[in-house]
Design a protein that fits this description.
9 strands; alpha/beta; three-stranded parallel sheet; 32% helix; two-stranded antiparallel ribbon; 9 helices; UDP-N-acetylmuramoyl-L-alanine:D-glutamate ligase
Length: 328
Protein backbone atom coordinates (compact mmCIF):
# COMPACT_ATOMS: atom_id res chain seq x y z
CA UNK A 1 0.00 0.00 0.00
CA UNK A 2 1.05 3.63 -0.29
CA UNK A 3 1.90 6.17 0.89
CA UNK A 4 3.49 5.48 4.26
CA UNK A 5 2.82 7.61 7.31
CA UNK A 6 6.10 7.41 9.24
CA UNK A 7 8.30 4.62 7.89
CA UNK A 8 8.66 3.19 4.40
CA UNK A 9 8.34 -0.32 5.86
CA UNK A 10 4.60 0.34 6.37
CA UNK A 11 4.15 -0.17 2.61
CA UNK A 12 5.12 -3.86 2.80
CA UNK A 13 3.22 -5.67 5.55
CA UNK A 14 2.90 -9.32 6.46
CA UNK A 15 -0.02 -10.32 8.69
CA UNK A 16 -0.82 -6.63 9.07
CA UNK A 17 2.60 -5.72 10.46
CA UNK A 18 5.27 -3.73 8.60
CA UNK A 19 8.21 -6.00 7.80
CA UNK A 20 11.12 -5.73 10.25
CA UNK A 21 14.12 -3.47 9.66
CA UNK A 22 16.26 -6.57 9.22
CA UNK A 23 13.96 -8.05 6.58
CA UNK A 24 13.60 -4.70 4.80
CA UNK A 25 17.37 -4.22 4.70
CA UNK A 26 17.97 -7.79 3.51
CA UNK A 27 15.49 -7.64 0.63
CA UNK A 28 16.31 -4.05 -0.32
CA UNK A 29 19.95 -4.84 -0.99
CA UNK A 30 19.15 -8.19 -2.57
CA UNK A 31 16.81 -6.54 -5.10
CA UNK A 32 19.06 -3.49 -5.54
CA UNK A 33 22.17 -5.55 -6.27
CA UNK A 34 20.31 -7.91 -8.62
CA UNK A 35 18.97 -4.96 -10.63
CA UNK A 36 22.37 -3.28 -10.62
CA UNK A 37 24.01 -6.43 -12.01
CA UNK A 38 21.43 -6.99 -14.75
CA UNK A 39 20.53 -3.49 -15.92
CA UNK A 40 20.90 -2.48 -19.54
CA UNK A 41 24.37 -0.92 -19.95
CA UNK A 42 23.02 1.52 -22.58
CA UNK A 43 20.04 2.79 -20.58
CA UNK A 44 21.74 2.38 -17.22
CA UNK A 45 19.09 3.57 -14.78
CA UNK A 46 17.46 1.98 -11.77
CA UNK A 47 13.66 1.82 -11.37
CA UNK A 48 12.13 4.92 -9.80
CA UNK A 49 11.23 4.91 -6.07
CA UNK A 50 7.66 3.54 -6.26
CA UNK A 51 8.55 1.05 -8.98
CA UNK A 52 11.52 -0.23 -7.00
CA UNK A 53 9.39 -0.71 -3.86
CA UNK A 54 6.75 -2.54 -5.92
CA UNK A 55 9.35 -4.98 -7.30
CA UNK A 56 10.71 -5.39 -3.78
CA UNK A 57 7.22 -6.04 -2.32
CA UNK A 58 6.53 -8.80 -4.88
CA UNK A 59 9.93 -10.32 -4.09
CA UNK A 60 9.24 -10.21 -0.32
CA UNK A 61 5.83 -11.86 -0.74
CA UNK A 62 7.26 -14.62 -2.93
CA UNK A 63 10.25 -15.29 -0.68
CA UNK A 64 8.18 -15.22 2.51
CA UNK A 65 5.59 -17.52 0.85
CA UNK A 66 2.50 -15.52 1.80
CA UNK A 67 -0.87 -17.25 1.20
CA UNK A 68 -2.49 -14.10 -0.15
CA UNK A 69 -1.16 -10.70 -1.23
CA UNK A 70 -3.38 -7.62 -1.30
CA UNK A 71 -1.86 -5.09 -3.71
CA UNK A 72 -3.05 -1.50 -3.86
CA UNK A 73 -2.31 0.36 -7.08
CA UNK A 74 -0.17 3.49 -6.84
CA UNK A 75 -1.88 5.82 -9.32
CA UNK A 76 -4.73 4.84 -11.62
CA UNK A 77 -4.40 1.26 -12.73
CA UNK A 78 -4.00 0.74 -16.47
CA UNK A 79 -0.38 1.92 -16.62
CA UNK A 80 0.48 1.49 -12.95
CA UNK A 81 3.53 -0.63 -12.22
CA UNK A 82 1.47 -2.86 -9.89
CA UNK A 83 -0.62 -3.91 -12.91
CA UNK A 84 1.65 -6.76 -13.99
CA UNK A 85 -0.31 -9.46 -12.19
CA UNK A 86 -1.86 -11.40 -15.07
CA UNK A 87 -4.31 -13.52 -13.13
CA UNK A 88 -5.25 -12.05 -9.76
CA UNK A 89 -7.95 -13.83 -7.76
CA UNK A 90 -10.21 -10.77 -7.74
CA UNK A 91 -10.10 -7.01 -8.43
CA UNK A 92 -11.85 -4.18 -6.62
CA UNK A 93 -12.44 -0.50 -7.41
CA UNK A 94 -13.54 1.74 -4.57
CA UNK A 95 -15.33 5.08 -4.85
CA UNK A 96 -13.81 7.19 -7.64
CA UNK A 97 -12.55 10.72 -7.02
CA UNK A 98 -10.78 13.45 -8.96
CA UNK A 99 -7.04 13.14 -8.22
CA UNK A 100 -3.71 12.94 -10.07
CA UNK A 101 -5.38 14.72 -12.98
CA UNK A 102 -2.07 15.43 -14.75
CA UNK A 103 -1.57 11.65 -15.11
CA UNK A 104 -5.08 10.19 -15.14
CA UNK A 105 -7.08 12.90 -16.91
CA UNK A 106 -9.31 15.70 -15.74
CA UNK A 107 -12.73 14.04 -15.77
CA UNK A 108 -14.30 11.19 -13.80
CA UNK A 109 -14.79 9.27 -17.06
CA UNK A 110 -11.08 9.44 -17.95
CA UNK A 111 -10.14 8.42 -14.42
CA UNK A 112 -12.63 5.51 -14.53
CA UNK A 113 -11.02 4.32 -17.79
CA UNK A 114 -7.61 4.26 -16.07
CA UNK A 115 -8.98 2.52 -12.97
CA UNK A 116 -10.72 -0.13 -15.06
CA UNK A 117 -7.34 -1.03 -16.54
CA UNK A 118 -6.81 -3.52 -13.70
CA UNK A 119 -9.67 -5.74 -14.94
CA UNK A 120 -8.52 -9.13 -16.26
CA UNK A 121 -10.22 -11.68 -18.52
CA UNK A 122 -12.40 -14.06 -16.53
CA UNK A 123 -11.35 -12.57 -13.18
CA UNK A 124 -14.32 -11.27 -11.14
CA UNK A 125 -14.23 -7.56 -10.29
CA UNK A 126 -16.31 -5.52 -7.87
CA UNK A 127 -17.05 -1.85 -7.52
CA UNK A 128 -19.26 0.30 -5.30
CA UNK A 129 -21.95 2.83 -6.21
CA UNK A 130 -20.50 5.35 -8.68
CA UNK A 131 -21.94 8.25 -10.68
CA UNK A 132 -23.73 7.01 -13.82
CA UNK A 133 -21.21 8.04 -16.49
CA UNK A 134 -18.05 6.72 -14.75
CA UNK A 135 -19.92 3.47 -13.99
CA UNK A 136 -20.72 3.15 -17.70
CA UNK A 137 -17.01 3.54 -18.47
CA UNK A 138 -16.14 0.80 -15.95
CA UNK A 139 -18.83 -1.43 -17.46
CA UNK A 140 -17.48 -0.84 -20.97
CA UNK A 141 -13.91 -1.58 -19.84
CA UNK A 142 -15.11 -4.81 -18.21
CA UNK A 143 -16.81 -5.81 -21.48
CA UNK A 144 -13.66 -5.01 -23.51
CA UNK A 145 -11.45 -7.01 -21.17
CA UNK A 146 -13.97 -9.89 -20.82
CA UNK A 147 -14.13 -9.36 -17.07
CA UNK A 148 -17.28 -10.18 -15.05
CA UNK A 149 -18.03 -6.96 -13.13
CA UNK A 150 -20.42 -6.75 -10.16
CA UNK A 151 -21.77 -3.96 -7.99
CA UNK A 152 -21.47 -4.41 -4.22
CA UNK A 153 -24.73 -4.23 -2.28
CA UNK A 154 -24.81 -1.62 0.50
CA UNK A 155 -23.39 -2.75 3.84
CA UNK A 156 -26.91 -2.57 5.34
CA UNK A 157 -27.80 -5.61 3.20
CA UNK A 158 -25.33 -7.71 5.23
CA UNK A 159 -26.83 -6.71 8.56
CA UNK A 160 -29.35 -9.52 8.92
CA UNK A 161 -31.08 -10.37 12.21
CA UNK A 162 -30.80 -6.71 13.26
CA UNK A 163 -27.05 -7.15 13.84
CA UNK A 164 -25.34 -3.86 13.04
CA UNK A 165 -21.84 -4.39 11.68
CA UNK A 166 -19.35 -2.34 13.66
CA UNK A 167 -16.48 -0.75 11.78
CA UNK A 168 -13.10 0.02 13.31
CA UNK A 169 -12.73 2.90 10.84
CA UNK A 170 -14.89 5.95 11.57
CA UNK A 171 -16.86 7.85 8.94
CA UNK A 172 -19.91 6.88 6.89
CA UNK A 173 -17.77 6.62 3.70
CA UNK A 174 -16.01 3.58 5.17
CA UNK A 175 -19.23 1.58 4.83
CA UNK A 176 -18.85 1.27 1.06
CA UNK A 177 -15.18 0.29 1.54
CA UNK A 178 -16.30 -2.38 4.02
CA UNK A 179 -18.92 -3.72 1.57
CA UNK A 180 -16.21 -3.99 -1.10
CA UNK A 181 -13.82 -5.70 1.33
CA UNK A 182 -16.49 -8.31 2.17
CA UNK A 183 -16.95 -9.18 -1.52
CA UNK A 184 -13.21 -9.45 -2.15
CA UNK A 185 -12.77 -11.67 0.91
CA UNK A 186 -15.73 -13.87 -0.12
CA UNK A 187 -14.26 -14.37 -3.60
CA UNK A 188 -10.92 -15.41 -2.15
CA UNK A 189 -12.58 -17.84 0.28
CA UNK A 190 -14.65 -19.38 -2.52
CA UNK A 191 -11.45 -19.96 -4.51
CA UNK A 192 -10.14 -21.79 -1.46
CA UNK A 193 -13.22 -24.03 -1.50
CA UNK A 194 -15.17 -22.41 1.32
CA UNK A 195 -18.90 -22.69 0.60
CA UNK A 196 -22.03 -21.07 1.97
CA UNK A 197 -21.04 -17.52 1.18
CA UNK A 198 -23.44 -16.79 -1.69
CA UNK A 199 -22.68 -17.81 -5.25
CA UNK A 200 -22.15 -15.19 -7.95
CA UNK A 201 -24.63 -15.19 -10.79
CA UNK A 202 -22.47 -16.05 -13.77
CA UNK A 203 -21.89 -13.33 -16.34
CA UNK A 204 -20.48 -14.94 -19.44
CA UNK A 205 -17.20 -13.37 -20.65
CA UNK A 206 -17.95 -11.00 -23.49
CA UNK A 207 -21.65 -10.84 -22.58
CA UNK A 208 -23.23 -7.56 -23.66
CA UNK A 209 -23.55 -5.51 -20.48
CA UNK A 210 -24.23 -2.18 -22.16
CA UNK A 211 -27.71 -0.76 -21.69
CA UNK A 212 -28.38 -2.44 -18.37
CA UNK A 213 -26.94 -1.86 -14.92
CA UNK A 214 -23.96 -3.76 -13.60
CA UNK A 215 -25.33 -6.93 -11.92
CA UNK A 216 -25.57 -6.79 -8.16
CA UNK A 217 -23.40 -9.27 -6.29
CA UNK A 218 -25.33 -11.49 -3.87
CA UNK A 219 -25.33 -10.73 -0.17
CA UNK A 220 -24.29 -13.40 2.29
CA UNK A 221 -24.03 -13.86 6.01
CA UNK A 222 -20.56 -12.57 7.02
CA UNK A 223 -18.51 -15.10 8.94
CA UNK A 224 -17.42 -14.38 12.53
CA UNK A 225 -13.90 -13.71 11.25
CA UNK A 226 -15.23 -11.13 8.77
CA UNK A 227 -17.30 -9.41 11.48
CA UNK A 228 -14.24 -9.28 13.73
CA UNK A 229 -12.07 -8.06 10.86
CA UNK A 230 -14.37 -5.12 10.12
CA UNK A 231 -14.57 -4.27 13.82
CA UNK A 232 -10.82 -4.47 14.48
CA UNK A 233 -9.54 -2.74 11.34
CA UNK A 234 -7.40 0.29 12.05
CA UNK A 235 -5.53 2.51 9.63
CA UNK A 236 -3.45 5.15 11.34
CA UNK A 237 -3.84 8.65 9.96
CA UNK A 238 -7.34 7.95 8.61
CA UNK A 239 -10.21 9.40 10.66
CA UNK A 240 -7.99 8.87 13.71
CA UNK A 241 -8.64 10.53 17.07
CA UNK A 242 -5.50 10.92 19.15
CA UNK A 243 -5.97 12.38 22.66
CA UNK A 244 -2.69 13.77 24.05
CA UNK A 245 -3.18 15.49 27.40
CA UNK A 246 -5.05 18.77 26.89
CA UNK A 247 -4.81 18.45 23.09
CA UNK A 248 -7.00 16.17 20.97
CA UNK A 249 -5.78 15.57 17.42
CA UNK A 250 -8.17 14.60 14.62
CA UNK A 251 -6.07 13.17 11.80
CA UNK A 252 -7.00 12.41 8.23
CA UNK A 253 -5.21 12.08 4.92
CA UNK A 254 -8.08 13.32 2.71
CA UNK A 255 -6.79 15.04 -0.44
CA UNK A 256 -9.63 15.07 -2.97
CA UNK A 257 -12.91 17.00 -3.00
CA UNK A 258 -14.99 13.92 -2.19
CA UNK A 259 -12.65 12.64 0.54
CA UNK A 260 -12.40 16.08 2.23
CA UNK A 261 -16.21 16.28 2.23
CA UNK A 262 -16.28 12.86 3.90
CA UNK A 263 -13.63 14.04 6.37
CA UNK A 264 -15.72 17.13 7.26
CA UNK A 265 -18.78 14.95 7.86
CA UNK A 266 -16.73 12.69 10.14
CA UNK A 267 -15.10 15.60 11.98
CA UNK A 268 -18.39 17.40 12.57
CA UNK A 269 -19.87 14.21 13.97
CA UNK A 270 -16.83 13.28 16.07
CA UNK A 271 -15.78 16.69 17.40
CA UNK A 272 -18.43 19.27 16.72
CA UNK A 273 -21.55 17.62 18.04
CA UNK A 274 -20.84 19.28 21.38
CA UNK A 275 -21.38 23.02 21.69
CA UNK A 276 -18.09 24.81 22.11
CA UNK A 277 -17.62 26.17 25.67
CA UNK A 278 -17.76 29.98 25.86
CA UNK A 279 -14.97 30.30 28.42
CA UNK A 280 -12.22 29.99 25.80
CA UNK A 281 -11.07 26.63 27.22
CA UNK A 282 -11.37 25.05 23.79
CA UNK A 283 -9.51 26.34 20.75
CA UNK A 284 -9.97 24.63 17.39
CA UNK A 285 -6.91 24.75 15.17
CA UNK A 286 -6.67 23.46 11.60
CA UNK A 287 -3.22 22.15 10.72
CA UNK A 288 -3.22 21.80 6.94
CA UNK A 289 -0.76 20.34 4.47
CA UNK A 290 -1.10 19.40 0.80
CA UNK A 291 1.30 17.98 -1.76
CA UNK A 292 1.40 17.75 -5.54
CA UNK A 293 -0.82 19.61 -7.99
CA UNK A 294 -3.92 19.70 -5.78
CA UNK A 295 -6.34 22.62 -5.73
CA UNK A 296 -5.68 23.64 -2.13
CA UNK A 297 -8.08 26.62 -2.23
CA UNK A 298 -10.96 24.31 -3.23
CA UNK A 299 -10.08 21.84 -0.45
CA UNK A 300 -9.83 24.59 2.18
CA UNK A 301 -13.20 26.02 1.14
CA UNK A 302 -14.81 22.69 2.08
CA UNK A 303 -13.37 23.00 5.61
CA UNK A 304 -15.10 26.34 6.31
CA UNK A 305 -18.16 24.74 8.02
CA UNK A 306 -15.83 23.44 10.75
CA UNK A 307 -15.32 27.02 12.09
CA UNK A 308 -11.70 26.74 13.21
CA UNK A 309 -10.27 29.48 15.45
CA UNK A 310 -6.88 29.33 13.76
CA UNK A 311 -5.39 27.77 10.66
CA UNK A 312 -1.76 26.71 10.43
CA UNK A 313 -0.28 25.83 7.04
CA UNK A 314 2.54 23.34 7.04
CA UNK A 315 4.99 23.37 4.11
CA UNK A 316 6.81 20.27 2.85
CA UNK A 317 10.41 20.11 3.96
CA UNK A 318 12.56 17.08 3.32
CA UNK A 319 15.20 16.45 5.93
CA UNK A 320 17.93 13.91 5.34
CA UNK A 321 19.38 12.50 8.52
CA UNK A 322 22.72 10.81 8.01
CA UNK A 323 22.24 8.90 11.26
CA UNK A 324 18.88 7.40 10.35
CA UNK A 325 18.48 3.64 10.28
CA UNK A 326 17.44 1.69 7.23
CA UNK A 327 13.68 1.57 6.86
CA UNK A 328 13.01 4.63 8.96
Amino acid sequence: SSPHLVQVRERIRINGQPISKELFSKYFWLVYNRLEETKDPVHASMPAYFRFLTIMAFHVFLQEKVDLAVVEVGIGGAYDCTNIIRAPVVCGISSLGIDHTSILGDTMEKIAWQKGGIFKPGVPAFTVAQPERPLEVLRERARELECPLYLCPELDAFEGDHRALQLGLAGAHQRSNAALALQLARTWLQCRGCGGLGELQEVLPGAELTGRPVPLAPTFRPSDAMIQGLRDTEWLGRTQVLPRGPVTWYLDGAHTTSSVQACVRWFRQAALNQDKPHDGSEVRVLLFNATGDRDTAALLKLLLPCHFDYAVFCPNFTEVSMASNVGE
